Amino acid sequence: MASLTVHGIKVPVEPQDVSPVIWRALQSQSYEAKEAKWIFRAVKARDRVLELGSGIGIITALIAKIPDVQVWAFEANPATAELAKRVIAANDLDNVKYSQGLLTAGPPRSFTFYVRRDLWMSSTDKDQGPYERELSIVSANIDRFITDHRINALVMDIEGSEKELLQDAELPGVERIFLELHDHLYGLDGIRNITLALAEKGFAYDPRGSRGPCVLFAKNDGPREYEDVEDVA
Q1: What are the pLDDT digits (tens) for 102-155?
Q2: Rounded (5°) CA angle 58-60-64
Q3: What structural domains does the chain harbor?
């Protein structure tokens, strides 16, 4: 199998494995480019990281290459999860535990997951657009998982479900949260609700690790690390 290299990560994926849109993004290096640049401001050496909505595992692999990091990654879509496992194996990463499933706030319950051709559009939101099939997935409790695995950093790209999760979960022991906001799904009112909910949990918006919809919320006040001057508009 031919292997692409995307953001320095080996990606053994063929054109038939993904949609044409995803394939072009992989070839052009635009796939998750913002996340690939900013993830290193969110995750530090020796972190214990929980990643939700890992997609095909490129960001997972980048996180796993940070020294002494342990990663637990979840992806709801079984087909996408299989591609991610392929990426993890191709990059010889033994510090990643990968699971197909959902973590949510509150007790386990059944969700309908809508699989779309463009894998980054698959979600639990039926109204997000046309879908190819439905899956029934029983969630597990995120706070229990965080406690059991001593997670201190949370990374997520879960297509709008972050709004409910960040409002309802307690997130015990988590110091940093790096996520992609989806304002097209819940508007500025949703972003306001997320921000207020995280502020009540002790998190602040951290501009040192944020750019556009990819944002970092943090509790700890680290060094004043900003992007290079030439990158500032």
Answers
A1: 999 999 999 999 988 888 788 888 888 898 899 999 999 999 999 999 999 999
A2: 120
A3: 32-103+141-231 (3.40.50.150)
